[in-house]
């Protein structure tokens, strides 16, 4: 069981085929959507996500909510969430007991105030990417030779970067030396799958000059942090020296406007926010494994490839919850697809292994 319907897979395959039309790189969405679960032997999802970090539970007013506790800080915040001095080693009983006596809106408000990834089922409307002009358009081109600065981590952004790399782009994985991509500390096969073939550039994110130098020569930037994270360092889409034809793709959990811009999200809770669940015995269950991540990464890769092919000069913003909502009506249509593991890949780059090569690339691309 994957929890992914044939209709969801078919819709995603249409996007994959459109990417193929632009780049010539053939994709099997079954691998993209089910590959991590297959390679890691993750359990079929139910009210607990395949990876185990996100739970679905009912609120006092009968609505369903999802909460992700994947980071140590998330677990440490549970006593404050449930208004208790302390909780047991397993925090979920305390969360579900508290939620059963609390309306969904109050659950969401308190969790968001504490910076926790939370969702109320079906709260997010379906929406395509937000697009805006970014500098001057350039000459339409293929991805071969395009330089991509991939500032993302985990899954959606790195998948976008990996697909662009397969289409011929030079992808530079940018990580903080102090806080590298969290998937480095997880199963190596998943990190390798997402990041093999990329150059690794480790940099102190307080070194704005170093980051600005890279962003100033990049043709494509992949950003997957909350919008203010780079902007407060003076490194948002409008800040680097304008480069003709640049495409900047921004991936967030819930968007970049108002309160939504400050919300944290992971793939499973973002999917619940978009209503992408399957009903089993009148109870919602998760669809796939953090499915909003690979769906968003696929859509973002296609959007970037198409934008570069039209001359670029665009800011493209994807909200994972809005992408998931586009697939929600298809969640129970058709038989579930089989899980397909990806083929073995070379190892991903060691942290900072390509710093010298990246510095040479930056020097060679700076205007004379």
UniProtKB/TrEMBL annotation:
InterPro entries: CoA-transferase_III, CoA-Trfase_fam_III, CoA-Trfase_III_dom_1_sf. GO terms for molecular function: transferase activity. It comes from the Bacteria. The keyword Transferase applies. Keywords: Transferase. Pfam families: CoA_transf_3. PANTHER family: FATTY ACYL-COA TRANSFERASE RV3272-RELATED, SUCCINYL-COA--D-CITRAMALATE COA-TRANSFERASE. This is Acyl-CoA transferase. It comes from Mycolicibacterium goodii (Mycobacterium goodii).
């Amino acid at each position: 069981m994957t929890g992914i319907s044939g209709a969801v897979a078919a819709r995603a395959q249409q996007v994959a085929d459109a990417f193929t039309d632009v780049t010539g790189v053939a994709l099997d969405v079954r691998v993209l959507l089910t590959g991590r679960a297959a390679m890691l032997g993750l359990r079929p999802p139910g009210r607990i996500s395949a990876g185990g970090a996100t739970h679905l539970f009912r609120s006092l007013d009968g609505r369903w909510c999802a909460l992700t506790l994947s980071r140590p800080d998330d677990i440490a915040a549970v006593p404050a969430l449930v208004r208790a001095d302390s909780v047991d080693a397993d925090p979920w009983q305390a969360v579900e007991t508290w939620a059963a006596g609390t309306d969904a809106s109050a659950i969401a408000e308190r969790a968001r105030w504490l910076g926790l990834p939370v969702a109320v089922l079906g709260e997010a409307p379906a929406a395509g990417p937000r697009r805006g002009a970014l500098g001057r358009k350039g000459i339409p081109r293929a991805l071969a030779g395009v330089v991509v600065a991939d500032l993302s981590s985990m899954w959606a952004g790195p998948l976008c970067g990996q697909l662009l790399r397969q289409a011929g782009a030079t992808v530079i994985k940018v990580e903080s030396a102090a806080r590298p991509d969290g998937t480095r500390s997880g199963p190596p096969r998943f990190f390798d799958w997402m990041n093999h073939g990329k150059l690794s550039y480790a940099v102190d994110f307080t070194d704005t000059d170093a980051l600005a130098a890279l962003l100033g020569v990049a043709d494509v930037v992949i950003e997957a942090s909350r919008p203010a994270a780079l902007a407060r360092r003076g490194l948002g889409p409008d800040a680097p020296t304008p480069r003709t034809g640049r495409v900047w793709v921004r991936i967030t959990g819930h968007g970049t406007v108002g309160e939504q811009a400050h919300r944290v999200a992971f793939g499973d809770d973002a999917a619940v926010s978009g209503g992408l669940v399957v009903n089993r015995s009148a109870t919602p269950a998760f669809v796939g494994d953090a499915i909003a991540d690979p769906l968003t990464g696929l859509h973002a890769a296609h959007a970037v490839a198409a934008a570069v092919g039209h001359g670029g000069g665009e800011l493209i913003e994807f909200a994972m919850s809005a992408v998931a909502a586009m697939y929600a009506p298809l969640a129970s249509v058709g038989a579930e697809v089989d899980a397909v593991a990806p083929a073995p890949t070379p190892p991903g780059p060691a942290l900072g292994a390509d710093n010298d090569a990246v510095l040479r690339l930056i020097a060679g691309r700076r205007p004379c």
